[in-house]
Amino acid sequence: MLTPEQAQDRAADLVRRAVAAGADAADAVFAAHASTEVSVRLGTLEDVGRSESEDLGLRVFVGHRSASVSTSELSADTLAALVDRAVAMAREAPEDRFAGLAPAERLMHGAPPALDLADRGDVTAADLREAAQAAEDAARAVPGVTNSEGAGASASSSVWALATSHGFAGAYATTGYGLSASVIAGEGGAMQRDYGFHSARHRAHLDAPDAIGRLAGERAVARLGPARVASGTMPVVFDPRVGASLIGHLTSAISGQAIARRTSFLLDALGTRVFAPGVTIRDDPHRPHGLRSRPFDGEGLPVSPIALVEDGMLESWLLDSASARQLGLEPTGHAARGIAGAPGVSTSNLYMEPGKVPVATLLSDIASGVYVTELIGQGVNPVTGDYSRGAAGFLIENGAITRPVAEFTIAGNLTAMFAALTPANDLEFRHGVNVPTLRVEGMTVAGG
């Protein structure tokens, strides 16, 4: 694996080649990734996989015309041909007056923040097998578990670099570790499955294998014998592992592309109240060893913590340079760049601040409702905000979570759902997007 400095040099060299070949401006991305994955099932090793890759992506501008190319073949002859092809393509591309590199005066300079994103320990395939086996053993030991879909463990390392022709060059390294188990409870047509999973930048921060496995087994057993839900309008409570999807719909709606194209249900909502008072949603790219932490964005701009929603008020769009120019605004440091194509936008470590009440209090006055642990389907209209998803979970009866339920639908409109949302105080940072338990009033529930 190359060092960040070597990766940065690769990207910068490609930019120099592009400018020498006639490009007015250019940026390049270099990404290297290596991972090892091990899976076991029913106590037997199923698979060991190792993957390694190195990729370069180049974007060039000739006036207001641009083109993007990418390659995983890094020989000198290939790169020379790649640069020539990119410049030739750009000369034939249509003009786009909003396209271009990020504003030069906004580029990040100086030392990047220390985010502690890379672990230093070596992990062998034998270590991963041992962890996966321990997770599956713990899951299968839960009374009521009858079969296993397997357990897996992984370790990876990556280096990402960006260079531009107008003065930016930067790179950083990350590592990642994951552990999961998925098991089945019950027999025949009454079988139910569920899983446990955790990932972390540092191996020492990963949950213990037996805890992950036990959680998978307990979740599967808890779903046995699902009842049917009576249809009606009622409160819906979202478990944190599915509640994060609601915040995903928010970020899609406030992306610069959606606003510029006028395809968002929050089109005119900037500076207005979109959530209930007290709800705050923050994006923190500087969280130490965060799963989505980064020292700079996909265009070389500095990043910093920001409140997207403060006390219920929508405070910011998510803007890369192109969408910012189209809207007459400034980029927000949320550009995200893949190997191929122009930047899009993405959040980093996104989270909703915890509320003031425990989960038990959040549930206490619900005479009849549902607690959702699984969402199915993609029934969300990003233009209107109409929302309809298949779901599974548990009944809430007289303030308590009781029987499992399945095969029902929850529906509403995201504008009304956001306004009627109450967070509990149980926020934990376990994913790239984190929320506490969420209660949404007045949703339409339809039983199967």
Tell me the layout of helices and strands:
Blueprint: H1 4-20, E1 25-41, E2 44-62, E3 65-71, H2 76-92, H3 125-140, E4 145-164, E5 169-185, E6 192-200, H4 209-222, E7 232-238, H5 240-253, H6 256-260, E8 281-283, E9 306-310, E10 313-314, H7 321-327, E11 335-336, E12 344-345, E13 350-352, H8 359-363, E14 368-376, E15 386-397, E16 400-413, H9 414-419, E17 421-423, E18 433-434, E19 438-447
Parallel strand pairs: 7-14, 13-18
Antiparallel strand pairs: 1-2, 1-4, 2-3, 4-5, 5-6, 7-19, 8-9, 8-13, 9-10, 11-12, 14-15, 15-16, 16-19, 17-19
Helix pairs in contact: 3-4
Question: In words, what does this structure look like?
Answer:
- By secondary structure, this protein is an alpha+beta fold.
- The protein folds into two domains: about 220 residues, PmbA/TldD fold (2-Layer Sandwich), CATH 3.30.2290; about 220 residues, no CATH class.
- The chain has a six-stranded antiparallel β-sheet with strand order 3-2-1-4-5-6.
- Helix 3 packs parallel to helix 4.
- The longest helix is centred in the first third of the chain and has 17 residues.
- It holds the Pfam family PmbA_TldD_3rd.
- Belongs to the peptidase U62 family.
- InterPro entries: Metalloprtase-TldD/E_C (IPR045569), Metalloprtase-TldD/E_cen_dom (IPR045570), Metalloprtase-TldD/E_N (IPR002510), PmbA (IPR047657), TldD/PmbA_N (IPR035068), TldD/PmbA_sf (IPR036059).
